[in-house]
Design a protein that fits this description.
Layout (H helix, E strand, L loop, with lengths): L10 E4 L9 H5 L1 E3 L6 E3 L3 E7 L10 E5 L2 H7 L3 H21 L3 E3 L1 H5 L7 E6 L4 H6 L4 E4 L1 H8 L6 E5 L1 H23 L5
Parallel strand pairs: 7-8
Antiparallel strand pairs: 1-4, 2-3, 4-5, 6-9, 7-9
Helix pairs in contact: 2-7, 3-6, 3-7
């Protein structure tokens, strides 16, 4: 086994549910992906911690992985768990955006957003008809009831988190969600 290869006996989990996107210290620091060895800013990667090592203390034993399906498939043992965590983060950010006045909801309002508007758009998986056609290019992450619950509404067919830090965090977690879905759907892990 080469020194550059990811350790085969380690199981990796996401280190923390808190996103480090937008924090000043994580943005400038370069980190190395444990899968491909590419260096990138920490804010563009997923922080992992090693589990299952008896001699390893919890703090300081971890690494970073690129948010790309090939890298995630090499090191994430349970992509479904990471996908669920990313979905939970997205739904939590919907609630924060609602409380901060940075959330648009409803198919009409979200569908009418100009393409130049900085926003992260999330739509319901159970949308139908015209809404399905108008918002087909956006990520369907949860049911209308679950998306609405996150937004403090009975149902929401679509929401948009507008500009700023919450929008960037949502875009980060949306990419993690998407890439882990790709890994899940492939069902293939590189050994």
């Amino acid at each position: 086994m080469s020194a550059r290869a990811a350790h085969p006996k380690r199981a990796w989990q996401v280190a923390s549910k808190a996103s480090h996107v937008g924090h000043g210290d994580g943005v400038a620091l370069g980190r190395t992906c444990v899968a491909c060895r590419r260096r990138a800013p920490a804010a563009t990667m997923v922080r992992l911690r090693s589990v299952g090592l008896a001699a390893a203390p919890a703090a300081g034993r971890g690494g970073y992985v690129c948010i790309a399906a090939p890298c995630l498939s090499k090191v994430v043992a349970q992509p479904a768990a990471l996908c669920e965590q990313a979905q939970a983060q997205l739904l939590a950010l919907v609630g924060l955006a609602r409380r901060g006045g940075q959330l648009l909801h409803g198919l009409g309002q979200v569908g009418a957003l100009p393409r130049t508007t900085q926003a992260t758009v999330l739509v319901a998986t159970d949308r139908t008809g015209r809404a399905k056609e108008r918002l087909a290019h956006h990520a369907a992450i949860a049911s209308a009831a679950r998306l609405g619950q996150a937004a403090g509404l009975p149902e929401a067919g679509a929401v948009a988190i507008l500009g700023g830090r919450l929008c960037l965090q949502a875009a980060y977690w949306l990419r993690v969600w998407y890439e882990t879905r790709v890994v899940e759907q492939r069902g293939v892990r590189d050994e």
